[in-house]
Amino acid sequence: MPRYSPFAPIPIPTSNLLTFLSPPESPLHTSTKPIWINSEDPSISLSTGAALPWTKRLAMGLERFQVASGGSRVKRGEVVLVLSPNQIFVAVAYLGIVGSGRVFSGMNPNYSVQEMVYQMKNTEAKIILVHPSLVDNALAAAKQADISPDRLFQFSDTVNSNKNDVRDWNNGLLATTQESHSYQWPELTGGEGAKTIATINYSSGTTGLPKGACVSHRNVIANVLQSTAIRGVLQKYFAERGPPQRWIGLLPLYHVTGSVGVLDPNCECKPLDDDGNEVADGEPATRETMLPNGWLRTGDIAIARGDWFWIVDRKKELIKVNALQVAPAEPEAALLEHDGIDDAAVVVTTKNFPGHTSSPRRMQSKRIHRLRRPKSKNGLSPVFPNIHG
């Protein structure tokens, strides 16, 4: 039997995410309290009252954008990629892109050029917002992905001069503050909120290259309301016994976490064994991918006791590299690009071969050394490579 949340179901609106977050009567439109702060220079910050005009400037700019090279406009439902380290204008970019009806997809700033190319092509990105420090890599990737340079714009908390012909978003993309006053978020009615994609987040690519997971406006709104509902349960305790609430994510030593708690409102789950059979309390439940009847195999190995769950592991073929998850398929694909390699399989081993390091992320053909080459029955010869990150 499915397990249900101990909390009552909550209604989930089907509106545009920005309409939900900032309705016309919301005090957020006039708030001057900084909520996004540059940690290196706290004098640089954004309040919601300051950020919302920026989001409308971007949204309106996307509506009317036309590249100088004569390419197509950026339609609703098309992807805008963001390539940036953490900075206060990432939130502005996200809200403006999603609110306009376009789709946000973020790229890891530590990606190699080839990894950027893959995501640019896979999303069919129409515009790329890039931090000034990453312009060179973004241009190299865009060239390989056949994306015109005039679809790239620099964005940060300062106005930037042109860099290799990549303009600042203030020069050619954003509407003026005056123009943006008339902008209204496109409404999503009926079931549109559940079908309209807000974000494409890329997974670790367990069974191959990274895959984009589409998240709808309704998905995001549901997560906000579920989190709010859980915090509401604790509100009385904090109001009576504690100081004003401040939330921060911390892990105990060695990343050993406690229970992840109970199910959020509107959530159901079923612990399953490896064969898809339901298990009783205390047995691990793991599986991957989707079941035909709509249940998601999350890949979590969990312990369930009553209403409470402990996530104890993940069942995935993944290699951890500097806190990143790398699927074997990625280094395998890189190895197969070499003319001298017919087939490749990457596995995790706790034994270090001479000169071996535990980083499969970047390999160069000149650094792959044959350590031993025993012949197999089919004539193929396994090679143990020296991999340098």
TrEMBL record:
Gene Ontology molecular functions: CoA-ligase activity
InterPro entries per record: AMP-bd_C_sf (IPR045851), AMP-binding_CS (IPR020845), AMP-dep_synth/lig_dom (IPR000873), ANL_N_sf (IPR042099)
Domain AMP-dependent synthetase/ligase positions: 74-261
Protein's name in the database: AMP-dependent synthetase/ligase domain-containing protein
Biased composition (Basic residues): 363-376
Residue ranges, annotated region (Disordered): 353-389
Compositionally biased region (Polar residues): 353-362
Pfam families: AMP-binding
